[in-house]
């Protein structure tokens, strides 16, 4: 990456047949250098580290611009010459196609400055813009014109350069004005490549020919633990909302501790159908002086005196003075009212104990008891919803639920619902239906963005659209070494996303890519999963689902793990493997058994069928080449135990 301890790296390219034949004629190049030096005021804010002279030759101009931006990773390239109406002037024509973003404002500022000096500036044809992380400007060939143009924009260059790199511009802005260059760099994958000649892009798949592609992945292969901690460092629970307590809460996570507002029961209640008694009265025949049935009543229940009993039903309020309840089975009717409809006196056969068969106020749940905690998932079992309802909670604060978008990519990928027969080379999209199914069972909302072809513009458009609508975007395909694997450069260059990693030492899922875009306050996460159906599904479970859970506020966002015994030998892979298996409980052995789903190639989606766990297998070493039947392994649960 480009900001050195000395400041912004600059390349000055003089484009002139004359100067290329005799470098002493390159006054404009020298003039531009002086302008940068003066603006740096001895602090090397701008450091001209490259200077070159080329003739007015289309290919030569393009080659050096690509070299300086893609591989040398200069912050700023400024050219002088070749912008006029002369027959040989082709600088704008050579440079414009290399620009991924046009900076009309800078061009305008340069033109306006020249126009103030001479109307002939109207005959100048400057272009400026961004390629990768490099800002490119063209100025006229005359030393005076070049100087005026650069001076017109030099104060905005640090800020512009910071924005091009994906920063906010604030720090660089301050740095420029305080003239204290710092070495503080943005945390992105480029840092790891600072000293490498080749940049992180796979050649230049966005505009360069396949012959220029890199033949080794520039992305460092990080470990699974590193990948998980990078993702976690960019993931925080979304904000909270207040919602009513009802069944729609299922699947949401509480954003607050909840305390009981009402006691349960709210009055002393009978546990049985029978008679409220005064325990110390003991067995005997007693008049039935009242009735207390479970129902709402305006007045308090009657007050019992020694020698009296009252009829009561389960849940009925126990009358004042009563100290126990005796069940109807332990009594006999002695006398009735004259019409025979009411009990008059009843014999109690048993000696009741104090408080027997009475639920005191708040004995189930007292006021102020914590009934649900922040971070707790409200499940479909119903328990949590019922508890909240029972203690008078009518609304609660829950975390907003993240919405994730899904996008398949690939020219060969066709919609799974497509009625037509497959053409030669086509494959049905199994990734989107898989993710739609996972969204249904996990309860996370999903937006389907269909299939994008391997075309930069289409990819850029759909990525932008999707990112405007979701919290997390999950794409599949196009992240490896193929010439149509465009996702990484499109994210980074066209969208200005920051790639945090692009390769993980794992199987399947090696090219899994993670990027973020936007400001800290409105950051979107992007998971570029591999296209192979198994790789896509496994990495969804390992990375995306835990992230969704964390965003949704889950206290325990990682998927649960159990220990299981292998039922067959498994050859290990040089990469730690997530082997698909079915876990079942063996009641005789008292442990879980893991049955492999068979051939594990990343394209074989059949290996996901009936799979409810991913066995976490270690990488192969000289000492350990296979795990034998009977070995206990960690199994990450992704499905139900049957
Ligand atoms: N030279 C190298 N080649 C590959 C490497 C490598 O390191 N060097 N890595 C391999 C690994 S590992 C994987 S995994 C794949 C990942 O490939 P991509 O993510 O670039 O995906 P594509 O090239 O677009 O597709 C790969 C494969 O999957 C099929 N596919 C894609 N999308 C879907 C879908 N929605 N439904 C079903 N099948 C899909 C696609 O047709 C290809 O067959 O790269 C290896 N290559
Ligand atoms: O790592 Mo790739 O995901 O083999 O399939
Ligand atoms: Mg590929």
Automatic annotation (TrEMBL):
Pathway assigned in UniProt: Cofactor biosynthesis; molybdopterin biosynthesis
GO biological process terms on file: Mo-molybdopterin cofactor biosynthetic process
Name of the protein this chain belongs to: 4311_t:CDS:1
Stated role: Catalyzes two steps in the biosynthesis of the molybdenum cofactor. In the first step, molybdopterin is adenylated. Subsequently, molybdate is inserted into adenylated molybdopterin and AMP is released.
InterPro entries to which the protein is assigned, alphabetical: MoaB/Mog-like_dom_sf (IPR036425), MoaB/Mog_dom (IPR001453), MoCF_biosynth_CS (IPR008284), MoeA-like (IPR038987), MoeA_C_domain_IV (IPR005111), MoeA_C_domain_IV_sf (IPR036688), MoeA_linker/N (IPR005110), MoeA_linker/N_sf (IPR036135)
Entries under SMART domains matching the protein: MoCF_biosynth
SUPFAM superfamilies associated with the record: MoeA C-terminal domain-like, MoeA N-terminal region -like, Molybdenum cofactor biosynthesis proteins
Cofactor field: Mg(2+)
Catalytic reaction list: molybdopterin + ATP + H(+) = adenylyl-molybdopterin + diphosphate; adenylyl-molybdopterin + molybdate = Mo-molybdopterin + AMP + H(+)
Organism field: Funneliformis geosporum
Family in the record: In the C-terminal section; belongs to the MoeA family. Belongs to the MoeA family.
GO molecular function: ATP binding; metal ion binding; molybdopterin adenylyltransferase activity; molybdopterin molybdotransferase activity
Recorded GO CC terms: cytosol
Lineage, top ranks: Eukaryota, Fungi, Fungi incertae sedis, Mucoromycota, Glomeromycotina
Keyword list, A-Z: Magnesium, Metal-binding, Molybdenum, Molybdenum cofactor biosynthesis, Transferase
Annotated ranges, domain MoaB/Mog: 11-160, 405-550
């Amino acid at each position: 990456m480009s900001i050195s301890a000395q400041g912004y790296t600059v390349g000055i390219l003089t484009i002139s047949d004359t100067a290329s034949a005799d470098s002493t004629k390159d006054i404009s190049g020298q003039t531009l250098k002086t302008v940068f030096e003066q603006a740096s005021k001895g602090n090397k804010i701008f450091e001209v580290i490259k200077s070159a002279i080329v003739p007015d030759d289309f290919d030569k101009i393009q080659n050096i611009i690509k070299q300086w931006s893609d591989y040398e990773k200069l912050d700023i390239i400024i050219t002088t010459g070749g912008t006029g109406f002369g027959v040989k002037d082709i600088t704008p024509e050579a440079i414009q196609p290399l620009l991924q973003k046009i900076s009309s404002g800078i061009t305008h500022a340069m033109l306006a400055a020249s126009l103030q000096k001479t109307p002939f500036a109207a005959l100048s044809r400057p272009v400026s813009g961004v390629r990768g992380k490099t800002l490119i400007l063209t100025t006229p060939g005359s030393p005076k014109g070049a100087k005026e143009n650069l001076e017109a924009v030099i104060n905005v260059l640090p800020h512009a350069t910071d924005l091009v790199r994906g920063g906010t511009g604030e720090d660089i802005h301050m740095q420029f004005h305080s003239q204290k260059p710092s070495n503080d760099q943005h945390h992105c994958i480029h840092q790891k490549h600072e000293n490498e000649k080749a940049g992180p892009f796979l050649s230049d798949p966005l505009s360069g020919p396949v012959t220029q592609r890199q033949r080794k992945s520039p992305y460092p292969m990080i470990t699974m633990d590193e990948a998980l901690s990078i993702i976690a460092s960019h993931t925080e629970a979304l904000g909270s909302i207040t919602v009513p307590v009802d069944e729609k809460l299922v699947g949401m996570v509480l954003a607050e501790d909840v305390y009981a507002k009402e006691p349960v029961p709210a009055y002393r209640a009978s546990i049985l159908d029978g008679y409220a008694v005064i325990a110390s009265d003991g067995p005997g025949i007693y008049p039935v002086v009242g009735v207390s049935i479970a129902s709402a009543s305006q007045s308090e229940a009657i007050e019992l005196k020694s020698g009296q009993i009252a009829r009561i039903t389960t849940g009925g309020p126990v009358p004042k003075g009563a100290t126990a309840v005796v069940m109807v089975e332990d009594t006999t009717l002695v006398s009735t009212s004259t019409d025979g409809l009411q009990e008059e006196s009843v014999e109690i056969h048993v000696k009741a104990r104090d408080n027997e068969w009475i639920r005191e106020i708040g004995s189930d749940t007292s006021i102020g008891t914590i009934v649900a905690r922040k971070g707790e998932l409200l499940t479909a079992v119903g328990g949590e919803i019922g508890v909240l309802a029972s203690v008078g909670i009518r609304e609660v604060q829950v975390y907003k639920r993240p919405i994730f978008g899904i996008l398949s990519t690939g020219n060969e990928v066709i919609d799974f619902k497509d009625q037509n027969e497959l053409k030669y080379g086509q494959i049905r999209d199994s990734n989107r239906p898989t993710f739609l199914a996972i969204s249904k069972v996990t309860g996370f909302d999903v937006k389907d963005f269909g299939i994008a072809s391997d075309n930069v513009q289409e990819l850029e458009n759909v990525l932008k659209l999707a990112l405007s609508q979701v919290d997390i975007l999950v794409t599949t395909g196009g992240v490896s070494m193929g010439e149509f694997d465009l996702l990484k450069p499109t994210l980074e260059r066209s969208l200005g996303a920051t790639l945090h990693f692009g390769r993980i030492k794992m199987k399947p899922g090696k090219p899994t890519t993670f990027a973020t875009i936007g400001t800290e306050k409105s950051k979107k996460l992007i998971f570029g999963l591999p296209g192979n159906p198994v790789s896509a599904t496994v990495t969804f479970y390992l990375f995306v689902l835990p992230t969704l859970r964390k965003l949704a506020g889950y206290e325990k966002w990682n998927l649960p793990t159990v220990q299981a015994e292998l039922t067959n030998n498994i050859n290990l892979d040089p990469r730690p493997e997530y082997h698909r298996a079915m876990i079942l409980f063996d009641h005789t052995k008292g442990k879980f058994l893991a049955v492999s789903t068979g051939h594990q190639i990343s394209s074989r989606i059949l290996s996901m069928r009936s799979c409810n766990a991913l066995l976490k297998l270690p990488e192969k070493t000289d000492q350990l080449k296979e795990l034998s039947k009977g070995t206990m392994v960690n199994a990450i649960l992704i499905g139900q135990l049957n």
